[in-house]
Design brief:
two-stranded antiparallel ribbon, 15 helices, 4 strands, globular
């Protein structure tokens, strides 16, 4: 625990000092995000190299404080690859397939260094499925690629990805330190320190963005932590915990895949159909209110994950009810997307009910 706290503080101080320097470097190298299309939620040109400062602030404490064994080398090596790919994308705007190949290369490094999902338990039962090597590799690659990209997808509002990933990293730290994977707990604490310090510059109005280098770094490290500590240390509920901790980006990814499939467009294409877009564009929430609402949802789900992992039944009941209420509320907000897409009246707005006139309008929109 003391090492984790020390790592958190070192990372936070380093990122706090490095981020302004990264901003100046971005201005000099032209790594600046200029709002050039409708999907951008910012209005001013903003430096993009915040992710490089986060990487340095994360890697140095990990190298100093953590015993570097094979899995740790896998995390460091893979993280270095995704940051390099992200930096090239921030500077030169790589094609999606090129970025994905870079992600697969980083994942391959992690798998080579023994970060793999070898087994999967049926939640809350004693049933355990052990995977053959080929299946283990495929399942791990799919799982890690999904997490990397869903973190990349939620990086659409000032402070959203950094805050959600900071909360998730802190949760993974608590879970890991209570199991037999303390090194993963320290790595998670260092990541949390880096992300929370970055929020000083990234919360609305942001003076710097993390870019793809930062979002893919966060997604990759969280994916490794979910495999290396959570899934191996809590086998009976291995799948439940990371899905709760990463619930907000997982819901966002699921929604946009579904929405874009319905519209017949590739899931990786740009668009304003993310959860955070709904909150700002449909409901008129400010960026800060939208981000804080998603933070709250993430905290409830993460608290529930910790309670489940510790088998604390009273906390599971209380946090489960609170998380369910928050999820239903968010579902009601997100259900308005179809009306926004079609230009129809909001089905939850006052005075709009389920009557024949509404059904006729809906049928006309379908035609």
């Amino acid at each position: 625990m003391r090492t984790a706290v020390l790592g958190f503080l070192i990372a936070a101080v380093m990122v706090y000092l490095l981020t302004p320097l990264m901003g100046r470097l971005a201005q000099r190298t032209g790594a600046v995000d200029t709002p050039s299309d409708d999907r951008r939620m910012h209005v001013l040109a903003t430096p993009l190299l915040g992710g490089l400062g986060m990487y340095l602030g994360w890697m140095v404490p990990v190298m100093i404080l953590v015993k570097v064994d094979r899995p740790v080398w896998g995390i460091i090596g893979g993280a270095t690859i995704v940051v390099a790919v992200g930096l090239f994308d921030d500077l030169y705007e790589l094609e999606p397939i090129v970025k994905f190949i870079g992600q697969l290369l980083a994942i391959s490094v992690a798998i080579y260094f023994d970060i793999r999902i070898n087994r999967m338990g049926v939640p809350f039962t004693d049933v355990m499925a052990h995977f053959p090597t080929a299946v283990s590799v495929l399942v791990t690659a799919f799982w890690m690629a999904m997490i990397i990209n869903m973190v990349n997808f939620i990086d659409g509002l000032d402070g959203l990805a950094a805050g959600v990933c900071g909360i998730s990293a802190l949760t993974f730290c608590i879970i890991s330190l209570s199991t037999t994977f303390p090194a993963a707990g320290v790595i998670a604490a260092v990541l949390a320190g880096a992300t929370f310090a970055f929020l000083r510059f990234n919360f609305h109005p942001a003076s710097i963005f993390m870019g793809d280098a930062g979002s893919m770094l966060l997604g990759f490290v969280l994916a490794c932590l979910s495999v290396q500590s959570v899934m191996k240390g809590t086998a009976a509920i291995a799948l439940v915990l990371p899905l709760l901790v990463l619930g907000v980006p997982f819901v966002d990814l699921s929604l946009i895949v579904w929405r874009r499939w319905r519209r017949g467009v590739p899931f990786y294409s740009p668009g304003q159909d993310h959860v955070h877009h709904d909150l700002v564009l449909v409901h008129g929430f400010s960026q800060r209110k939208s981000v804080l609402l998603l933070y709250s949802w993430c905290i409830l789900l993460s608290g529930l994950a910790i309670a489940v992992q510790r088998h604390n039944l009273p906390a599971v009941v209380v946090l489960g009810v609170a998380a369910a209420i928050a999820t239903v509320y968010m579902a009601q907000l997100l259900s308005r997307y179809r009306s926004r897409l079609r230009g129809l009246p909001d089905p939850l707005a006052p005075g709009v009910g389920n009557n024949p006139g509404d059904d006729a309008a809906d049928d006309g929109a379908k035609r």
